[in-house]
Design goal:
heterodimer; A: alpha+beta; five-stranded mixed beta sheet; 7 helices; B: alpha+beta; 2 domains; seven-stranded antiparallel beta sheet; 8 helices; 19% helix; 35% strand; elongated
């Protein structure tokens, strides 16, 4: 192993805060100005430690009789053998020493689509959000047309998009290198569009085929989509941690769904979000067959048994039967 | 004056007997006899109760001679009756603090006291938690023992450890009253002290399910269960309620129901231990009568646009209509709702034996079908069917289907809840929405409170089958647009 050597001070998360090159051994470390590597740390002695080559040709960090010593893996040691990945703490400073010959990991394949950054995805995201806001406003609009109501909806939508994406961009600048506001806006816009499409689709399927479960449990699809959205935001911040984020997003989805189920159970004694499907769509959408009144009343009669069982239980002990 | 908003009217129409039971309730926080006025619609007295009127100002005279001389009849009556007049209090067993206050009177020379069921309801429903006590006009107190209740007519008989002087005579035969005849109502209004108020008998009310006498005189909270007597001291009725929205419009339970209850007491060897099954029986009898009367003849049909909707309009079930035509909206919504003006009081928080139905016809020529679908869906969504945390009922069980009546395809939802304390009683709710036109929606609702399962099914089926439309829409017409 030969020089030059690089001494790196590290942040807690492993990021390199400062790196300096020293060409010859031994290297003296400390707060004093007669050191090769000066550590600006009040908990470090003027002449704290020294890096030398031992007989076996290993790089060794030796304590020079300091008060706080050298800490490696939580233990104070008089000397520590330094491989390229050994991190030692001197005072409040974490250090690592690597030789020029230290092998680094191969470069990552760049899958980032660099043309889809900045204004273009940002505009697309804002456009999607705006369309969603206008559509939601139009759908629930029962009054005579007034421009200002639509403008208001648009302002709220875009404002929310900027707020949400702004927070993510801030985190991105903090933990990644760039803000990537455009990308975050695009993720938000796509998320909203997916949420709207899923809700509409679920309502249509539920109504058309009389599959009420699609609206009874619609909130879980929404939870899944929101978790997906957060996954894409996280990947935008740090693309190399994709695999970990997948687990985090899945965990959030499971947690969200469980919370919804528990909340429903607490509130109404049911797992479903609603007592019955309230969706009414134009009759042309219907596919399933109508039932007769007799059939309906038979279904109603079938509820008697479970109701009478429920009567005997104490309030709050309603067990799940459907 | 601005006309009352519809919601208020509807509330009034639905509120118990269109009237407030006048047992007085003191909230647990305020100890002693501090009267708490009934919250929503009781007209507050000029000064808050229990405060002394301010001293007269320099310009005001303070001559008692300026007051009108009291009616001698009332004077004589009160002095003769006060020995037999009692206040009935419900006390919390733990701590013996009062929770409701009403009145009662000793019948003849017996040790039986007549009062309202709603005065003693807590004792009847939760005998482990509440205990009764009487206070006479001299301030002496003693225990009361519940012997019998008549929930439907709101009457109860309790036994006390003293005997009446024989002033209040409950006659064996019905009392004949003429309209305008003076009656004197006795009791302890607002827990302020015993009082007598003068008023006139004004006939029998037919709006409530069971006959009640109209008494145009003041009856206030706390006077419930007190007697209303003729000038000769014959009991004509028992104070029960007043209209919150009226002035001195009060109601009495006719004395003949009290006679029946007293006969029952005479026949029974000892009082029942648990009144809940008895109350359930009475409620079951009530719902039989109510549903039989509702379905005695086919429901009458009204038309709303092309739709035929069933209603029942009678003395007991009154209908109100309303429209949103004044709203600046792209759609029109007309609605008819019919509700019984009376319900059976079971407890402070539970009233039952009630039927209501409503229809709303929404239509729009200018809205996109998707917009209209959103509107119809939001109208069809009833967030809760009764309070979901109501512990006296089980959680609702619902059935939902697309149903085709004789002439109308619709979405139907029936939700049923069972009463925990009263076996055999259920609350039924039917919600329907027509499903034949993308630009019009007929949404109907039927609520049956406190009915047997069979009767609930019977009424639901009758209501559902009667929904229809005049001319089934041709498919081509539906597809155009």
């Amino acid at each position: 192993m030969s020089g030059p050597w690089f001494i790196e001070t590290l942040a807690r998360n492993g990021d390199v805060l400062q790196r300096s090159r020293v060409d010859t051994l031994p290297i003296r470390l400390g707060r004093g100005y007669d050191n090769e590597f000066i550590i600006d740390d009040d908990y470090v002695a003027a002449s704290h430690a020294r890096i030398v080559m031992d007989a076996a040709g290993r790089l060794v960090l030796r304590d020079q009789g300091s008060r706080n010593g050298i800490i490696h893996r939580g233990k104070r040691l008089p000397e520590v053998v330094l491989s390229g990945d050994t991190v030692v703490r001197i005072g409040h400073t974490s250090l690592r020493v690597r030789a020029a010959s230290f092998p680094v990991a191969p470069e990552l394949a760049d899958r980032t689509f660099h043309r889809w950054e900045g204004a273009l995805p940002g505009a697309a995201g804002v456009l999607l959000t705006g369309c969603f806001a206008l559509f939601a406003r139009w759908l629930s609009d029962t009054q005579y047309f007034e421009f200002v109501r639509y403008f208001e909806a648009l302002a709220w939508g875009v404002g929310a998009a900027l707020l949400w994406s702004g927070a993510w961009a801030f985190a991105n600048r903090l933990f990644g290198r760039h803000a990537r506001l455009g990308r975050h806006l695009f993720v938000f816009g796509c998320g909203l569009a997916a949420l709207a499409a899923t809700a509409l689709l679920a309502a249509t399927i539920a109504y058309a085929f009389s599959l009420e479960a699609f609206t009874h449990y619609a909130s879980h699809a929404a939870t899944l989509l929101v978790a997906g959205m957060i996954y894409f935001h996280l990947c935008t911040v740090k693309p190399q941690n994709r695999r970990r984020y997948r687990w985090i997003a899945a965990g959030m989805a499971v947690l969200g769904s469980s919370l919804i189920l528990i909340f429903n159970l607490q509130r109404s004694g049911r797992l479903a979000d609603e007592l019955y499907m309230a969706v009414l769509l134009p009759p042309e959408v219907r596919v399933s067959q109508d039932h007769g009144i007799d059939e309906f009343m038979r279904e109603v009669e079938g509820m008697k048994e479970s109701l009478d069982r429920g009567r005997g239980r104490k309030p709050g002990e309603d067990e799940l039967e459907d | 004056m601005r006309p009352l908003p519809f919601a208020t009217l509807l509330f009034l129409a639905c509120s118990l007997a269109g009237a407030a039971p006048v047992a007085q309730k003191s909230s647990p926080g305020t100890g002693g006899g501090k009267p708490v006025p009934q919250p929503p619609l009781v007209i507050p007295p000029g000064a808050p109760p229990a405060t002394t009127p301010p001293a007269p100002g320099p310009g005001e005279t303070d001559e008692t001679a300026a007051l009108p001389t009291p009616s001698t009849a009332a004077q004589d009556l009160y002095s003769a009756a006060k020995g037999d007049l009692l206040q009935i209090r419900m006390l919390l067993k733990n701590g013996r603090s009062q929770s409701t206050v009403g009145s009662g009177f000793l019948v003849g020379t017996s040790n039986l006291v007549l009062t309202n069921y709603h005065v003693v309801s807590q004792m009847a429903l939760d005998p482990d938690v509440y205990v009764g006590e009487y206070v006479d006009t001299d301030g002496k107190t003693g225990p009361v023992e519940l012997l019998a209740v008549d929930v439907l007519h709101d009457l109860a008989v309790v036994r006390v450890n003293r005997e009446g002087t024989g002033f209040f005579q409950v006659p064996d035969h019905p009392v004949r009253l003429t309209q305008g005849q003076y009656l004197y109502s006795l009791g302890n209004p607002l827990d302020l002290g015993f009082a007598i108020s003068e008023g006139a008998y004004n006939g029998v009310i037919t709006r409530s399910f069971y006959d009640q006498l109209i008494f145009t005189g003041p009856i206030n909270s706390g006077m419930s269960g007190g007697p209303s007597v003729t000038v000769s001291g014959t009991v004509a009725g028992i104070n029960v309620s007043k209209r919150r929205d009226g002035e001195s419009v009060s109601f009495l339970v006719p004395v003949r129901y009290a006679q029946e209850l007293l006969r029952k007491v005479a026949a029974q060897s000892r009082p029942p231990k648990n009144f809940n099954p008895l109350i359930a029986q009475q409620l079951l009898a009530h719902q039989r009568d109510m549903i039989d009367r509702l379905l005695a003849e086919p429901l009458s049909i009204k038309t709303m646009g092309p739709y035929h909707v069933p209603v029942r309009e009678s003395q007991q079930l009154r209908c109100w209509g309303r429209s949103n035509f004044r709203l600046e909206a792209e759609y029109t919504g007309d609605s008819v709702s019919c509700a019984m003006e009376a319900a059976i009081y079971v407890s402070d928080t539970q009233q039952t034996g009630h039927v209501s139905m409503s229809h709303t016809y929404l239509r729009s020529a200018s809205m996109h079908p998707l917009q209209f679908a959103a509107l119809a869906s939001s109208q069809f969504r009833v967030d809760r069917i009764g309070s979901s945390r109501d512990t006296r009922l089980t959680r609702p069980a619902c059935t939902e289907q697309f149903v085709h009546t004789a002439s109308l395809p619709l979405r139907a939802v029936t939700c049923v809840r069972a009463y925990r304390k009263f076996a055999g009683l259920y609350n039924f709710t039917l919600l329907t929405a027509s499903n034949d036109d993308g630009n019009a929606s007929l949404q109907s609702r039927l609520d049956l409170a406190g009915v047997s399962f069979e009767n609930g099914m019977r009424a639901t089926r009758a209501f559902l089958s009667a929904l229809g439309r005049s001319r089934p829409r041709a498919p081509t017409q539906a597809a155009r647009r």
